[in-house]
Structures are given as structure tokens and as C-alpha cells.
Amino acid sequence: MEYLQLTWVNWSHICDFIDKKNFVCGVNLDDNTKCALPNTQISNTIGMYMKIEEKIVLVKQNEYIIKENNTIKIMTQIQFDRKRKLEKICQEKN
Fold first, then answer.
1. What's this model's pTM, rounded to 2 decimal places?
2. How far apart are CA 67 and CA 22, in angstroms?
3. The Cα angle at residue 53 between residues 89 and 49, in degrees rounded to 5
4. Is the pLDDT of residue 93 over 80?
5. Which three-class secondary structure state does DSSP give residue 17?
6. In what order do the strands lie in the sheet with 2-5?
7. Which of 34, 42, 59, 80 has the fewest Cβ atoms nearer than 10 Å?
8. Continuous H helices in the chain
9. Within 13 A of 52's CA, how many CA atoms are on the CB side?
10. How far apart are CA 94 and CA 14, in angstroms?
């Protein structure tokens, strides 16, 4: 599993992490609602539109982009933490 969290700090890594065919565009998100803003508005919150399985998906700041088994998934921090915890439990049992 490969993963990267969407943040301003690692924006350049995001662009290297995902295939160009999956990248649609970066957007600013409303700092409170986390909804995409018009191109003329700026904010402190980053977002990105990605193409995943023929759908356009909005990835929001601090969400994880996960590449696993030739698929891409988006997870919140809570989902990501649960996944990592379950993987650790499975490894300890083996």
C-alpha cells in the first residue's frame, strides 16, 4: 500500500504520486464548509479533483490518497487510522 495525505506542504509530492490521467485540477475549498470555491476565490484549505474509476471525486485537505492493488481510494483521517490499526492486528496474528 502506498499513500499520501493531501496538504499544502506536500502538494508537489501529490503531483508526482498520482498519474496525470487521474489528476483533474487543484481547487481552493471554503475553510468552513470544505466545498470547492470558484477559481477566483482563494482560501487556506486545499482540495483536488481526481478521476477514480471513471468518476470525478473531490479530495479534501488532510484526506489520504491510497494506492493499493492497482486501485486508488480516498480516506479520511479516521478511516485511514482504522485501516492501519486493522492491518497491524492482522500482522500480529500471523
1. 0.86
2. 12
3. 95
4. no
5. helix
6. 2-5, 64-68, 71-75
7. 42
8. 11-17, 77-93
9. 16
10. 33
